[in-house]
Amino acid sequence: MGLFSLNEDMKEQPQLHLRRLAEFMHCPFSAKEETDGVVDEILGLCSFGNLRNLEVNKDGKLLFGIENSAFFRKGEVGDWNNYLTAEMGDRLDKIIEEKFYGSGLSF
């Protein structure tokens, strides 16, 4: 599946994909930022463990009473199989392809 295999690729090579994202946004990392460890610092701040443990994500709620913690599961590759059928995953992939069509992004 497109989105799910992308997530697996991102988890295996996070530095590569962060650099690609920065380039896509026309904000590539400078040589100094690379040397100073900015990429790894950003990855640490955006890590599943860090985001999951932010106070707002542990105790916060949306306007409709849904707890923010509902958006975090295990953060493991392939865990989506425990929540979605293959058919649901295919449908989600098609929606994402439609929404991002023409953006220059590919899944």
TrEMBL record:
Belongs to the sulfotransferase 1 family. It comes from the Eukaryota. Keywords: Transferase. Its EC number is 2.8.2.-. It is an enzyme of class 2 (transferase). Residues 8-104 form the Sulfotransferase domain. This is Sulfotransferase. GO terms for molecular function: sulfotransferase activity. InterPro entries: P-loop_NTPase (IPR027417), Sulfotransferase_dom (IPR000863). It comes from Escallonia herrerae. Pfam families: Sulfotransfer_1.
